[in-house]
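Our collaborator T.R. sent over the components below with a one-line note: 'Predict the complex.' Nothing else. No constraints on interfaces, no templates requested, no preferences about which chain binds where. So this is a plain run: every listed entity goes in together, and whatever single assembly comes back becomes the starting point for the next discussion.
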Amino acid sequence: MRKILQYGFIDLLRSKWMMGYGIVFFCLTSTILYLIGDFKQVIISMMYLVLYLIPLLSVILGIMYGYQIREYIAWVLSHPVSRKNVFMGYYLSLSLVLIIYFLIGMGIPFLIAGVLHSTSADAFAFLLIAGIVLCFIFSGIALWVVFGFDHKLLGLGMGLLIWLGMAVLYDVFFLIAVIAYQDYPLEIFAIVASMLNPVDLSRILLIAHLDLSALLGYTGAVIKSFFGTNGGLIWICAGYLIWLIIPVWRYMHITSKKDF
Amino acid sequence: MIEIKNLSKAYKKRKVLHHIDATISNPGIYAVLGPNGSGKTTLMKICMGLVLPDEGDVYIYRESVRASIQYRRMVSYLPQIARFPDNLKVKELLQLTEHLRGKAQRKEMLMELLDLDPYMDQLFRNLSGGTQQKVNLVTCLMYDVPLYLLDEPTAALDPVTQIRLKEFIQHERERGKMVVLTTHVPHLVQAIADEIFFLLYGDIYFHGSVEQLIGAYQANDVEEAIARLLMYEQEKVKI
Amino acid sequence: MKKIFLFCFLAILTIKSRAGKIQVCASCEVQTIEKALQQAKPYDTILLRGTFRLDSAYTITMPLSIIGQQAVLDGQGKTGMWVIHANHVLIRDLILQHTGMSYVEDRAAISISKSNHISIIDVKIIQSFFGIYAYQSKHILIERNFFDGSGSSEFNAANGIHLWYCDSVNLIDNIVQHHRDGIYLEFTHNSEIRNNISSNNIRYGMHFMFSNNDAYIGNTFQSNGAGVAVMYSHHIQMKKNTFSRNHGPNAYGLLLKEIHDSEIKQNYFVENTVGIFMEECTRLNIIGNNIQSNGWAMRITGSSSNNEITQNNFLQNSFDVASLTANVQDNRFYENYWSDYRGYDLNGDNIGDVPFHPMRMFAYVVMRYDISVILLRSLLESLLNIAESVIPIVTPSKLVDLAPLMKPIQHD
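Returned assembly:
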């Protein structure tokens, strides 16, 4: 697995698409830093990139990479290596390269601007953590899709649909439910619902730790009291863990049974 | 040594292999023939654990291909379509191969034979299909193993390389190796094959030497024999 | 005007204090405060040194100056310290502590009842129920005092400075914390509250009712349970105050209820749940404020009308303005700077050519369905806002800044 990871990593690191992904992050972060300046506000703006752009690009780039892997996977598997190791190696190399370009693209401008010596260092750390976890989750989803759908276009469409579902449609249904059941106490529902979607979960994590929730009245207080505490952090980790495991587990399961 | 026991495989509803039994135990060159979709490639992939059989099993040097991966140290497989990671160099791919299955015995020799040395530091995304196929050959043949499974080895090769490859394969036979290959090129079969397995309708339709095949269909060469075989079958279907 | 009055008042006190001095300490001729009070004649000065344990409060019935020289009065959890029932009293440089709490009396470190011309200066009041409780009194100066109530809930805490039916009160440079309401005014007119810091109080930093013609200027209200509430009053001036970090389930920087003819100028509202909450307010001038990083910058409810909101900076608030009532046309927003404004300015006069609608669709959704605030900063929020700005359906179209500024106003 280490060798598959190592060479997969080298391969991907040189990919122009991945470099483009890093450059996009670098440019956007630098621009926002330059235009806004105040770290807290920059981090609030960066939330959108981390919450929505990372899943989108992770899925798209992951799916494109996945279909490339499929072209030579037979060659790899004909060697004395187990499927489990090969596929885990490719998953890790994809996630790690996405993470590295994300860290470079977003981290360097922030570090140059001196975020570590500001009061926003904590918030910045949470932003990085959320980004890293989302890279892991969505590269898992991407590979799951790649090996679940034999046609590249179909897979790409599916990936976009999953992204759209998690980024927007899920919230739409949530809002409809809130409107439909407005007469009932919905706090528990809201908390559970936002834990079941990794994008929402990350958003709530960031809101709870960017001191935004404190400003949101009663519901904000509920969010803060649930997610802003150490106990809440455990729940968030649990929610993340589910989303880290399910796609990878499905991907590993599919590839263990698939003909190449 | 390959033992195929009661092997079946279907993709969706299309049966590709249907209760096949066969054994190859002597050195020699074995050609697996058959029309498109007859299961040649599937058979090879099952041998390498790439395709999982529905029923039955294949034993390579007494190891089940379903259960084990260690037998692959004794087998070299040449996949039909050569594609490699776009952003790796040829050199790095060979390193990866050696990490996966150990030091290769004749890497330099083959690199020279196939004129690949100038491409060592190039990325695959900049290589032509023919060159990629040559690298494919190298990663397969650089290991001195008792069994080679070659899927369409001459496809996408220039004539010079085809000849060199043919000579290489014959040389391996003389060294007591087993070479199983699929091909669409009858001349190649006639030139080097010791035994032929002809796959049709998911079954081994014919098994025998080149001479037996030509004799059975009163043909002048393998090409004609195959053509007659297929025409005969079509007639049968019409009736 | 008030300053001149104060100066004369203090000057008179100083002159009078020469009349007689009574020193109280453990080794002095007079060893107890009771004795000193018995001996004292009007306009005498009583100087206190050392620690005094009290079993009941001392009542001052004649003009006196009580001045501490490192003196501590300890109520031992049983009693307040001073009950002032006379005019022209000065209390200065004392530490008053441990009044204990009481549900039967309004126990205060210093009670002022029906007395005029009272000064409380440089007094430290620690662990008290009420700090200063004044009623039906006039011309009171409360300056440079420190109040720490150490209260933990609304039930075991009372107000730091409590004024009821008073007039012409000056509260200057006090620090009030850990009380129920830091500063409480009811039926108290013509008063000035300047440069105080009221923080970490359980309920309001300042609570202000039925009190007219007052000014509060340069105060800081920070991290109070529910912020500052100003209710049922008119002709109030609120200038250069800072309202910050008043956040919680039901908190405001500034809650205005039935206020009219008042001015809110050059204040700084930062990180409050709601910057300014207006309910049935009329003829307010809200000018030149910085309203930054609040949950809601402004919430306007009820029939607030004829208010002017101009020259303010609305910076990075989660929601700028929220109002569920359609009747907002009488509230004029103009020439404010909105950090969310994305318009352009072709003629370069620093006034955007496109009007700004400060109430977004998502703000409306959140007001209707509180729990949906959990969707804050989601893509859906942006999509709803974009959709609404293209086809306005639910947000009041007349809630609009017709002349939004392109650049924030530099306030000092």
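Summary for T.R.: DSSP finds eight helices and ten strands in chain B.
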